[in-house]
Write a structure and sequence with these properties.
With about 250 residues, the protein is mainly alpha-helical. It contains 11 helices and no strands. Pfam families: Far-17a_AIG1.
Length: about 250
């Protein structure tokens, strides 16, 4: 089956969206309720490392990413049934326009950022992002849902569903606003708790932290450009043919 045939198969695309939403929604549920019921967590000296309440969870970009992914696949399913997956519709419905904007501006760059950053730091020194003391209380499958599967499904989405990117300035502005707000948020958390959200920030001096934050923002914005490039490259021929047919 070719890429175009996959795209035209509403059933195939809908199944992908259902599988993605199912695991991300369950991941949100499990991390919100089941982990807190763990006996091992209740007796762990490192209980503070596992967030219990919603305010504690939203300190982490991975949790925000999981929310964004779940929202994206909800919107995608709505679009599958009441919107359109046409490559070049004459007038795209609102749900399709929102789906395209969400994928381009947040879902793709934030997911790739979380996955690449986490596993890079994990490979350097896992204690910087996921200390070994969490292994007994934080299941490995949930770790992969948060940091691996988000990348797998968003890349799969890139190759099975076309999206019209917004104006580059608007897309980058939306992503920069989100990432800037998150950096402000973790500084607010540090101010009131006295502890950095991520252990890696504890070992960096102020100049190093500034460089780290600049690098993270720059890397995330570059991922927006990467997504735009891949989208245009993968779907160039199909979009050109679709526009010819509609003219």
């Amino acid at each position: 089956m070719t890429k175009v045939e996959l795209y035209k198969s509403r059933v195939f695309v809908t199944i992908i969206h259902l599988c993605a939403l199912g695991q991300f929604a369950y991941g949100l549920y499990y991390s919100s309720f089941e982990i807190q019921r763990s006996y091992k967590l209740k007796t762990s000296l490192n209980r503070r490392l596992v967030p219990e309440s919603l305010p504690q969870k939203i300190k982490f970009l991975a949790y925000w990413s999981l929310i964004i992914q779940a929202l994206y696949y909800i919107v995608s399913l709505v679009n599958d049934f009441v919107g359109t997956n046409e490559l070049a519709p004459k007038k795209a419905p609102a749900v399709r326009r929102f789906k395209d904007w969400l994928m381009a501006t947040l879902a793709f760059p934030v997911a790739i950022n979380v996955g690449v950053t986490f596993w890079t730091l994990y490979a350097i020194d896992r204690e910087l992002v996921f200390p070994k003391v969490l292994d007994p209380v934080f299941p490995s499958w949930l770790n992969h849902v948060l940091h691996t599967n988000i990348v797998v499904f968003i890349v799969l989405e890139l190759f099975t569903s076309y999206r019209a990117y917004p104006k580059r300035s608007q897309g980058l502005a939306g992503l920069a606003t989100f990432m800037g707000a998150y950096l402000v948020w973790i500084h607010v958390v540090k101010h009131y708790s006295g502890v950095w959200v991520y252990p890696v920030l504890e070992v960096l001096q102020l100049p190093q932290r500034i460089l780290f934050f600049v690098a993270v923002i720059g890397f995330t914005l570059s991922l927006y450009l990467l997504g735009e490039f891949l989208n245009n490259t993968v779907w160039a021929k199909e979009v050109k043919l679709a526009k010819r047919k509609t003219n």
